[in-house]
Fold:
Amino acid sequence: MPKVKIPTKYRSKLLIEEKLKQLKFVYLKRIKPYEGKVFVNSGRDKDSGCYPFDVDFSNFLTISRNIFQYALTEIKKNKNKNRNLYDKYVEGKPLIKFFKNLRNEEIHIAPGGHLTTISFTSSFKRDGKSLDKMTEKEINEEAKKAKPAVVTYEILRIIMPSNRLYNKFKSEGRQDLIKTIDKGKPIYEVQKFGAESNLFNLCEEYIKEIELFISYGIKKGFIT
Structure:
């Protein structure tokens, strides 16, 4: 009886396509709904004490990273000679590296976060009448005329404490940040990609970049 050849190669295409669906789900159903909105308690969950938005964004980083790891696993397990094509492609895409670094920090250093900024233009003053002299009805009428609030979400990354940073804050008189370091609490800064800091724009561009990566991997034969 002839032997039946059993396929033993690790193939990542179907797994990656499933992860891409999950990535889009997390973005469209969990992250995107936050855009332009303000939530009570600054978005903190009352029962757990955490920020659900940060949990969802962390999940987004994890799923997106899995896509690249699955492709890399196929290359390694099948001893694919196109590892150099994978490396060159990923290294040549700054946005991929940007999100990869965010995920690495999330795993090895500290959880990331987000910054919500709310800005609006409104003047509670009419015919020379100041706010404290206006009736409640007049205030409500003026509030309706105010321009809608602009809400932006930006990515935060941790700043690792160092003597240089400590001395810098000290020379600037930033006692609040010095106390934060002394207490062992993390300090964060807004993370930009070029001039872009809008979290939603960056996530959408990253999804497009991942789709291009998948198409490239299939074309070159290291995603099958």
Summary: DSSP finds eight helices and three strands in the chain. The CA atoms of residues 75 and 81 lie 8 Å apart. Residues 118-126 have pLDDT under 50 and may be disordered.
